[in-house]
Amino acid sequence: MNEHKAITFQGVTMKRGEQQVLRQITGHFPKGKITTLVGPSGAGKSTLLKLCNGLLSPDEGDIIVLGKSLTEWDPVELRTRASMALQSAPMISGTVEENLTLPYSLQGAEVDVDKMRRVIREVGLDTDYLQRDSRDLSGGQRQKVSIARTLLMEPDILLLDEITSALDRASRQEVEELIAHIHKTFGTTIIWITHNLEQAARIGHHTWVMIDGELVEQGDSSLLNNSNNAAVSQFVRGTDE
What integer pLDDT is reported at residue 131 of this predicted model? Predict the structure, then answer.
């Protein structure tokens, strides 16, 4: 049923020069669930994530996002509905408030101050942080501000690319708990690339496993512990060694 699918890939292929980055990807991300996206480096995970909100376009196949083909979306609207947070949590020079309002400033729009204060508290930071210099933030705090910036847009889909891989254990746990809270509170569909299979199994409801540009298995996240697919089992064993 399409109403239960946030994003559907239909025979999606993508090349970068002569390199085949994605090979006939067919599958879907369930609406209102956390899907973890795993696989070795170079599997095509980040490329696939960028396809989800139109930062890239496929060479072949179709992508249906919230019931509409990628080609039917206005790019700005799509990136509002499907917002991305990156491992690097990029910030401009200036205050946290200036970073939060940046997407609105670029569109010549204004932010509801009460909403901004609510969102910064939602990610576990005090409103005093709004006036802090972004250069003074820790890695975990930067990531929380990055997530707050996406939440201000009230996205239906949150796209996360290795957002905890550069964090220490305590900060990683805080961000994990934040994402779980966002999902529980707002019912947001979350697609999360992670190289940490323990994290993927712990936080994911659904998992995609990609190897060499192919989607080799998808299903309940428990598949990471009991897959019958030889390639997936080999990948999981390789990360444990």
Answer: 95
